[in-house]
């Protein structure tokens, strides 16, 4: 089975060989890549916010909130105690983004944002933090497709417009071309340059 063994282990079957040499090594690479990509600190922040939307608070979370969200931990803890005692607060089912948006909607009613400032600040900042840089990387890869050697003299406005159309292909696919043509027909000849 193993003509040139690199290790002292011998495999009894082809399945065992594939399981150890391919499957397990691929799993190791994936797990290590995920650990490198998502630092433990990021995971801790996500867990702390998940506990926060469930109105749970502890010392470790308070340190993270102070360091990354610039809130006063004592004030945040007081706000959570008040929120626990209120009857009409959102009751989360799991830890999802929709629950965070429910909280943001609830806080926007009747001046609640002024009362629960620390809680609102944590949620607002957390919602806008990107989890990965994949969307940015995708945009840059598409940039190299749009701005190539043949289009090197393109203006910045045109590049932005074409890049927007290329990145947002789902939105572009929903544009009714007949309406655009009709709008173009109605324009005065001098105004017929449509902004992309």
TrEMBL record:
One of its GO terms (molecular function) is protein dimerization activity. It comes from the Eukaryota. Residues 102-171 form the HAT C-terminal dimerisation domain. It holds the Pfam family Dimer_Tnp_hAT. InterPro entries: HATC_C_dom, IFN-induced_PKR_regulator, RNaseH-like_sf. This is HAT C-terminal dimerisation domain-containing protein. It comes from Macrosiphum euphorbiae. The lineage of its organism: Eukaryota, Metazoa, Ecdysozoa, Arthropoda, Hexapoda.
């Amino acid at each position: 089975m193993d003509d040139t063994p690199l290790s002292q282990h011998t495999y009894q079957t082809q399945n065992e060989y594939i399981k150890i040499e391919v499957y397990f090594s691929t799993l190791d690479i994936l797990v290590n890549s995920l650990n490198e990509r998502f630092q433990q600190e990021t995971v801790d922040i996500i867990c702390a916010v998940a506990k926060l939307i469930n109105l749970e608070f502890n010392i470790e979370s308070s340190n993270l909130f102070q360091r990354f969200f610039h809130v006063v931990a004592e004030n945040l803890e007081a706000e959570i105690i008040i929120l626990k005692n209120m009857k009409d607060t959102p009751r989360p089912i799991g830890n999802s983004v929709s629950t965070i948006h429910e909280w943001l909607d609830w806080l926007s009613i009747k001046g609640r944002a002024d009362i629960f400032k620390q809680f609102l600040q944590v949620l607002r900042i957390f919602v806008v933090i990107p989890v990965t840089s994949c969307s940015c990387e995708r945009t840059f890869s598409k940039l190299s497709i749009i701005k190539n050697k043949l289009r090197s003299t393109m203006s910045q406005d045109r590049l932005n417009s074409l890049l927007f159309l290329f990145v947002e292909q789902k939105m572009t696919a929903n544009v009714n071309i007949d309406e655009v043509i009709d709008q173009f027909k109605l324009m005065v000849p001098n105004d017929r340059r449509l902004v992309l």
